[in-house]
Amino acid sequence: MFPGGKIDPRKLQRLMREMGMEQEPISGVERVEIHLKDGSKLVFEKPQVIRMKIMNQEFYQVAGKAKREKPEEEPFTDEDVKLVAEQAGVSEEEARKALEETGGDLAEAIMRLQGE
Predict the structure, then answer these.
(1) Which cystines does this chain contain?
(2) I need a surface site. Which of 40, 73, 88, 97 has the fewest CB within 10 A?
(3) Could you give the domains of the chain?
(4) This prediction's pTM
């Protein structure tokens, strides 16, 4: 497309504007996370991010090294939630919250809920 593979950046910017394309770097980005269907996520620390507008649609280009993080598993099951709710005489929602706060410790969650 371009002889010698080189092009003046100013010419490229002008050409992009003529085609209805805009691009703008976004500064100060600390972290970008892309959450995947399987519960894992791609995490970019201190990436370079560019917002591009092409024909009234916005696109974001993220450049940097991605790290894949596996989904965090709860340290307790739905059966644990039911047991705590039953033993403490509270709703399953309250039981789940107590289990989250205690890191899945059933006895501690029950004692906290009964102490309230």
Answers:
(1) none
(2) 73
(3) 7-69 (2.20.70.30), 78-115 (1.10.8)
(4) 0.54
